[in-house]
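sanity check this fold:
=====
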Amino acid sequence: MTISDENTKVDNNKMINATSNCERLADEKHDIELFKEPPQLYGDCPICFERMPTLDSGWRYHACCGKVICSGCIHAPRYDNQGNKVDNEKCPFCRTSYPTSDEEMIERLKKRVEAEDPIAIYNLGCFYREGIYGFPQDYTKALELFRRAAKLGDTEAYLNIGCAHHAGQGIEVDTKQAHHYYELSAMMGNERARHNLGCIEMDAGNIDRAQKHYMIAIRGGYSKSLNMIKQLYSYGYATKDDYTTTLRLYQEYLGEIKSKQRDEAAASYPEEKRYY
């Protein structure tokens, strides 16, 4: 080997090492963003100002005003300014009467879609995906609406774009893209997306990373992740301290979302549909 060849080899090794270091630093930076504490998914109820439950049985979107309101405030008795009890057939936020038909509900939703309301756009996408309320089942149209809602910051839309890539609904199966959109949704506070990432890491044998995802999801109130930590503990992959910590985190979440009127509302749901 000549001196020139030797120098070229050294230069190539330096380039390879530099590239490797850059990739490692990029991965580390990505993980810092991925695993840091995300924002609360829905924030606080605009009426009682209590933290919104994670499960969708604990809240409802109102197309009349575009507000997400907790089940407790929806079911709580309401009174006028003279102290007289009034019916609960109106939105507790804007006092608009609830729609009396699917057609009226859809018309209100379409108005919110025209106003670029991301939740309304996402919901319309779900109608197309499921083929309900008179809409044809159209995965391509659903994905188009999910992408539109995602651009406006809707975390459920990012999650469902990931699900579409995972299942090949309206697009070719692409697990890398599914993982990418799950990450985007999880970093915005979506616990279901976070749980999906935990399952992906666990299937890949990355127990430590899976546990990190599950712990974040549990802090956000996702009970299925609590069950996964319980399984890891029973199989010897998680310690007793890990399991104790997850129970404490979940209890802290319940302490932030539970209230008397929410408990009364939850009593009207089957047990599997309650908000905790």
Q: What stands out?
A: The first helix runs from residue 3 to 35. The mean pLDDT is 90.
